[in-house]
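Last lecture ended with a question: if I hand you only a sequence, what can you say about the shape of the protein? Today we answer it with a concrete record. The protein is Large-conductance mechanosensitive channel. Below, first the input exactly as provided, then the predicted structure, then a couple of comments.
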Amino acid sequence: MSLIQEFKAFAARGNVIDMAVGIIIGAAFGKIVSSFVGDIIMPPIGIILGGVDFSDLAVVLKAAEGDAPAVVIAYGKFIQTIIDFLIIAFAIFMGVKAMNSMKKKAEEAPAAPAAPTKDQELLSEIRDLLKQQGK
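The predicted structure:
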């Protein structure tokens, strides 16, 4: 089997396509959460903390000289990224918890009793006949 045929067989499997869809949706969800944190959550927190804009929080290690940009540690952006992560992690946790809950309910649902096998039916008939003879 050639390499191209192997790749086609690999890519055509449902799991690969499901994974690709999950990655694309996850990336889009990450952008939504980043916007939510940066544009909605952080501004009020900044106002509460005295008008601080977290995206501007940084430590300047070396000032800009000529064409060379300044060297900074942008810890405000890092704080926003941590908050992004916490929101995404919580959303994933809640999704997994919901899926596990649904899975557990499906497992707890009583299964229909299995129909008796031919041997069991025959033994039941023999038992019933012996009961009738004993009367």
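Comments.
1. The first strand starts at residue 59 and ends at 62.
2. Strands lie at 59-62, 71-73.
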